Structures are given as C-alpha cells and as structure tokens.
Amino acid sequence: MDITGLAATAMAMQKASNNQEASIAMTRQAIESQTAAAATLVEQVSEQAKASAAAAARGGINILA
Q: Is the Cβ–Cβ distance between 8 and 15 less than 8 Å?
C-alpha cells in the first residue's frame, strides 16, 4: 500500500472513531436523562404511596376494597 492509500485508510479509521465517540456520547446522555426521569418517577410514586398510607391510616380510604 502506498502513502496515499495509508492516508486514506487512516482518515477513514479516524472518521469511524469520531462517529463511534459521538454515538457513545449520545448514548451516555440518553442514559443520564432516562436515569434522571426514573428518579423523578420513583420520588413521585413514593410520595403517592406515603399519601395513600396516611389517608388509609386516617380511615379516609379502604385500600383493600
């Protein structure tokens, strides 16, 4: 392989590496976003469970009905 072929191969490999790094960054960002959303949902469900338990303890609702 001559120098031109090597240069073209190196450029193609660099482009593939850059694309992979961009894909990894987007995946990482998506995971972080989904993790934050899941944490918010867990917090909301926890608060709803606490409110339901408090209402049930007061006799406000029958959770077995």
A: no
Q: How far apart are CA 19 and CA 11, in angstroms?
A: 12
Mean pLDDT, residues 15-38 taken together: 96
**Taking CA 34 as the corner, what is the angle to CA 28 and CA 35, rounded to the nearest 5 degrees?**
85
Dump pLDDT digits (tens) for 31-62: 999 999 999 999 999 999 998 888 878 776 66
Which residues lie closer than 8 Å to 48 by C-beta, 6 or more apart?
none
What 3-state DSSP class applies to 62? Answer: coil
Q: How far, in Å, CA of 57 to CA of 50, rounded?
A: 10
